[in-house]
Amino acid sequence: MKANSTLAAVLCLAALACTADTDTKETPTWNGSVGALVARSCGGCHSEGSIAPFSSDYASMRERGALVKQSVVERTMPPMPVNNDGSCHTYSNARWLSDAEVDTLVRWVDAGMPLGDGGAAADFSAPVPQQIENYEVEWVTPEYTPQNGPTDDYRCFILDSGLTTDDFLVAQQTFPGNSAVVHHVTGFAVSDSDLPWAEARDAEDEEPGYSCYGAGAPTSMGITAWAPGSGMIRVPGDAGYRMPASGKVIVQVHYNLSGGIETDPGTRIRVQARKQVAHEAITLSAADFSLRLAPGEASVANNPLHSRSGLAGVTELEPANWTIYGFYPHASDGPHASRDREAGWPRPVRRRRRSVGLQLAGLREYDQPMKFRKEDGPVLLQLNCTFDTRDVNVETFWGEDTTDEMCFAAFVATRDDD
Fold it and tell me: At residue 340, does pLDDT exceed 90?
């Protein structure tokens, strides 16, 4: 790496909260302003039948007033680890409470969470995300009952893409088959070299699909993603993902079993495709697999430039005309895992448990895409994650279950060398 010609595109990750209007003149009430604020900020996940542990109605919020206050003050809800305060980047689609909005919820809790006029708690509905209307194909996973537990089951399903290499995926929307257990969903374009590997894994497993922590296959690129509350996601920059020559995709479903085991009758991904796009999209990943966090700290960060096995949380791009539009971040609610040094896999540790965060966010688009020119030299994507380990009494390492911790991001980019 040439230090004098390397650009650092630093990704800042932190916890954030919800977006809504505020009531600054009088004591906020549920029927006056707070109910609508909570519904459109948190109802996408906190609704009946969804994966969050409780709903965002008045009774649930009143029962958890102290938690509501703590969560908005610490900016840990909703669990979407993107800092939009301008210290690193700002995002066109970030859900972020202003200081005044935080103050509204704090004053409501401090005032005893008053109901307001009307005598009964009004019901407020979460806004419906933008829906995909026209689509060329629909990928549907087979019926499956999660079982790898005790809390998580990552399952991969090989599906026909229904498209050719002349097609570019430009938009997609995922519909979970069972929102109570589907934690997040990722689609991968399967390369010719990966297909035999994936098919062998699938053949060895008696159940539909195969177990697949991490990526769906060794070199396959992520092309779709979904987390609770997401609607249609369009590839930015008039770009699209070229469909693989293999004619196959892998759909990875992360099932969270904290609330019990339930069957997923089939999760669907609807895909819009075009024959021509302005740019071919590329997914660039950065992950700190050497994540190592000291216990008992209010703020402890990974060290992306220090690792026992080389660079960690860093991706170096060769000189080219790169445009980076945004990223899919992934971190958890707090460190919950240590590494079994012999097996190399994470294992749970004893700790005081808090509610588990669903931290895979949708695509976070920069207000201004980052652009790098070929003459600037190599580009360094450096992933920085900060954690609160005050509830942990042991060193924390990387892990992929809901109760583990990770530091990961997948950037959406295009490369234009002409």
Answer: no
